[in-house]
Amino acid sequence: MMPKSLQSPSRLPEMDPAIWSRLPEELLEIVLSFLPLKTFLNLRSTCKHFKSLMFSRSFMSRHTASGSPFSSFLLLSHPQFYQQFPLYDSIAGSWRNLTLSLSLLLPGSGSNVSPSCTLLSSSNGLICFSLPSSCSLLVCNFVAKSSRIVEFPTHPFTFESFVFVPVSSGYKIFVLCSKFSSNSVFVYDSKVHSWQKFDRFEPILGDNYRQEGVFFNGSLYFTTSEPFSIVCFALESGRWERLDSELPGDLTFVRLVSDGKKKLYLIGGVGRNGISRSMKLWELDDKRDWIEVESLPEMMCKKFLSVSYHNYERVYCFLHEGMICICCYTWPEILYYKISRRTWHWLPKCPSLPEKWSCGFRWFSFVPELYALV
């Protein structure tokens, strides 16, 4: 006969502490890895061990493999959202009701965050803001609810180019500053929490160095203004070099994207007299030659070039989870290329965007990672 304690659906059998307290930690982690992400996050405050699991790569890998993967998002920053950041779920293929805000990122941190703060970059699960009023940067992990203030290397400090670079067990921040008599580069290393200054480099980037650099094989790669070329900055040595590969002909603008280690892509307009007639995608091969991968279909090309008004300074690109995203500051949609399928698509406009929207669309790749250290 079934015990009375099990006959009532409202009562559950008690867990014997003498048995569960002897459960090996590796088995406990396997059990916890099957929990939904939201449930596991609620367990963080119960004990130090559960909280430490957020920063365990082995546990998070097991959590993902168990069928409870974190999603990946495209994050939108726009002046009309006023420090609210809508999220597009690139796995589910839809906009999420959840919107990131500074109050969610940093509860109780109103004294550190001013209305003039600007979202600069997002990479490897970390989000970086500029805080002009306090002459500093704010690096935060939304999921782990952790943050760090990074003071500018000098005061006052202005910069023309900013790149947030994920590296093993941390990150580096590259800023290019022309305030000094000779243009200077500052690199911040999160491992040692300090800035390093590199002086006296030639202004080989020209007037186009406001385009963000991309990280590839230990260096940052930039495109120059016409005549177009590609230059790179070695993060460790501080040396500048010009890539000796010949670029495709008849380019009207060029942008770079990279996965960090294996692939470097070039997106460019092709035409004459500064007017693009088509857009193409190339990949750098092992011989340092640019191999054409795809051409943007004609109708999609006409739409993108029309919304950019042939002002290519408004165009920027980045790589997100196998998607090459091509964006324009003046348009609320993303044009993207799915690398695995070799297909082009338009990302739908954010439904919460006002009917009368203004310019200033900034898109970022946001892939939450609990163990990303600030």
TrEMBL record:
The F-box domain sits at 17-63
Q: Which InterPro entries match?
A: F-box-assoc_dom_typ1, F-box-like_dom_sf, F-box_dom, Kelch-typ_b-propeller, SCF_F-box_component
Among PANTHER family, the record links this protein to: BNACNNG10540D PROTEIN (PTHR31672), F-BOX DOMAIN-CONTAINING PROTEIN (PTHR31672:SF12)
Q: Which Gene3D superfamilies match?
A: 1.20.1280.50, Kelch-type beta propeller
Query: What Pfam families is this protein classified in?
Result: F-box (PF00646), FBA_1 (PF07734)
Name the record gives this protein: F-BOX/KELCH-REPEAT PLANT PROTEIN
